[in-house]
Amino acid sequence: MTTPxxxxxxxAALLFGIGLAGALARRSAVLVLIGLELMxxxxxxxxxxFWRFSPHPExxxxxxxxxxxxxxxxxxxxxxxxxVIAIYRHRRTAQLDRFDSLKG
Amino acid sequence: MESILKYLWLIPTAPLLxxxxxxxxxxxxxxxxxxxxxxxxxxxxxxxCAAFLATLHSGRAxxxxxxxxxxxxxxxxxxxxxxxxxxxxxxxxxxxxxIFIYSLGYMAREENFTRFFCFLALFAAAMLGLVxxxxxxxxxxxxxxxxxxxxxxxxxxxxxxxxxxxxxxxxIVTRIGDLGFLVGMLLLxxxxxxxxxxxxxxxxxxxxxxxxxxxxxxxALLIFCGxxxxxxxxxxxxxxxxxxxxxxxxxxxxxxxxxxxAGVFLIARVYPLMTPDALQVxxxxxxxxxxxxxxxxxxxxxxxxxxxxxxVSQLGYMMMGLGAGGIxxxxxxxxxHAFFKALLFLGAGSVIHGCHExxxxxxxxxxxTRLPVTFATYAVGMMALCxxxxxxxxxxxKDAILDAAHHWSGSQVPFYLGLCGAFLTAFYxxxxxxxxxxxxPTTAEAEHAHESPPVMTIPLVILAALAVLAGFFGTPAWxxxxxxxxxxxxxxxxxxxxxxxxLPVMLLSTLLVTAAIVWSGWIYGRAAARPxxxxxxxxxxxxxxxxxxxxxxxxxxxxxxxxxxxxVAFAKFSDxxxxxxxxGLIKAVCVLALVLAWLDRAMDEAVVNESFDAxxxxxxxxxxxxxxxQNGQVQRYLRIIGVAFCGLLILLLWGST
Lengths: 104, 657
Hints:
The structure holds two protein chains of two kinds. Chain A has a single domain (5-98), classed as Helix Hairpins. Chain A has three helices and no strands. Chain A has helices at 5-25, 29-52, 61-91. The radius of gyration of chain A is 17 Å and the shape is elongated. Chain B is mainly alpha-helical. Chain B has 28 helices and two strands. Chain B has helices spanning 2-6, 10-24, 30-57, 83-106, 113-132, 136-154, 161-192, 207-212, 217-230, 239-242, 248-257, 262-269, 276-298, 303-325, 327-354, 367-370, 372-386, 393-406, 413-437, 444-447, 454-469, 480-486, 495-498, 503-527, 537-541, 543-550, 555-627, 634-656; strands at 61-70, 73-81. Chain B has a two-stranded antiparallel ribbon with strand order 1-2. In chain B, a hairpin with a 2-residue loop joins strand 1 and strand 2. In chain B, helix 5 (113-132) packs antiparallel against helix 6 (136-154), helix 7 packs antiparallel against helix 9 (217-230) and helix 14 (303-325) packs antiparallel against helix 19. The longest helix of chain B has 73 residues, at 555-627. The A-B interface holds A 20, 23-25, 32, 96-97, 99-104 and B 626-635, 638-639, 642.
């Protein structure tokens, strides 16, 4: 008895929704980054699920894809956190709504 | 002859160069500027002497060159070397040289010493150019340049209002004559098609051309107008006495020896153009001027003014000599007069210098012992001017004129006028010498007068020697000068002196001169020591006539009342025309332009600007509203993207069903 694919997808969609809500609604840059990570992991979950239920699960394409994605996510988080720290040092805050110097 | 002809242009160019360089020199380089001028005039003098020697053996040589072309006509200028020009060049450069040297002493304390020598050199250049010009056009240009130099030098002390006014008067009065000259020149050009004097038979004075040329009295008289203005003949003589406002060396050089003689030289130069009728006019004008000016000189008190009127009178003699006797007679008097009148003026300058700038002869007296050199040379000049017989140049040259007038076919009246003038000349010169040099000093200045430095007295001595010697070159016994000008050989023949048509004139003039000197000496010799404020003995005897003479026959007043007033009235009318009529017209045009401009502005502001502003405002408003979207809030962008993505998804899903 295996869990059907739909369950995974629903979980992934929930995860994505939470991540999106976090990214859109949170003011702290760190929490926005966490939201972004959640969305990325939702996508990864989708990859794994679709791979597991694909006609040829013996080919490790999905797994490889996710491994790469995680590596990239790590790099992205490193970059994102560095940016947040740089901004914080500069402006003594990490609240995103305070950064509006690019407004027209 | 050929070689000197090649360098003839250097004679006027050397002083011109000195004037040009002098104009650029700073004020403190006094020695350099004077040295330049004197060096340049020395070069001119030496070259003139060489030219003169060349003309002794051969006649006339010319070198013409093209100045410019217009259309098919070319304007030619040129230099001419002939006895008339050569002797004149020697005289001009020599007198200039002496007067330049004299100026070193006379102007020693002058602040604008450099400027003075620059002007003097300019004058010398123009005068020498005039003398050697072979084209009436070049002659005219130099003629105007000497006029300019004269203007600049009369007004040298332009801080004095009288000097500035005198300079203006000289310039304007001579300009009246020059206008006639210019018109005459243009008529001559229209008639002959050339303004060159001599051009291998094609010039307007060449004998071959003169035969073809219908000699015109009108042209001759118009050219004579120029000479009247420049040489101070009646009725344009008024500027010359006023010109004495300039420094004394200038009076000597320009307004006695050289420039004023340019008019006489002009007539001598264009003599072939002078018709008998024109010569008649020349004679009459000359004779009248001779007496008129001499009589005025009798009643003047300014030492330089007396000499100025004397110059006018002597220029009248020259004109009379030209008209009645020919080139040689007039030119001979021009030469001798140049020497003794330059001498007299320089002597007067020495007197003025010695008396601390005093010019009134009533305030002098007794200077004989205080200025011995000046007195001796002045006496020589005075006797030469009076025409004391046998040993003084003025006697021979004046006698030649009187002799020519005596034998003139036109009328005997000029002869008697000439005798009258000779009498008056001797009278006023004796009066002047008595007042200045004899008797006792009348003022403290005269009491403490001092002799001038050698740099001033040596030119006086040289000129005095020439005032005596120059006469011997043109005596009836040895008419070297006359023959030189007319290209013949002179022989010595004492009997010419004694023949019956020379002797009576000589005796008569001698008698008159002696009478005048004795009479004047008798009147003024006694009066000399009297105080300055005392009236003149002549004034006591004949107050009315004396007043007329003292006021120069009221010629200036007459001109003021007629010519000047008319000119002023006309100028006022022109001014009115200019201000009211032309000015009004221009104002109307201006108002029209203003109205147009105002309309244009309104148009511009209301239509063009407003519409552009409206357009720009629309663009700006839209930009403003759109820019509100870009508020720099990254999350807001993301939200919009998310909403839009959802909207797109819904649309696609809805559309696909």
